[in-house]
Amino acid sequence: MKFFATVLGAVALSVTGAMAETAQARYDVVPLPLSVESVKGAPFLLTPDVKILYPAADEAMERNAGFLAGYVADNLGFTPAIEAYNPAGKQKKGGAPAIRLGLDSKVENSEGYRLTVTDKGVELAGSTPAGVFYGVQTLRKAIPVMPRDSVAAAVELPAAVVADEPRFHYRGMLLDCGRYFLPMDAVKQFIDLMVMHNMNTFHWHLTDDQGWRLELKRHPEVTEKGSMRKETICGRVAQVYDGKPHGGFYSQDDVKEILKYAADRHITVIPEIDMPGHMVSLLASHPEVGCLGADAPYQVSTHFGPHIDILCAGKEETFALVEDILDEVCELFPSEYINIGGDEAWKQRWEQCPDCQARIKELGLKGDERASAEHKLQGYFTKRVEKMLNERGRKAIGWEEIFDAGVNPSTTIMAWHGFDYIVNGANEGHDVIAGSSEYNYLDYYQRQNKDEEPFLIGKYLPLSKTYQYEPMDERVLPENRHHVIGVQGFVWGEFIDNANLMTYQMLPRMAAVSESQWIQPEQKLYHKFLPRLQRLTPLYDRYSYPWCRRWE
Ligand code: ACM
Ligand code: ZN
Question: Is the minimum distance from the CB of 62 to ligand 1 under 6 angstroms?
Answer without folding.
Answer: no
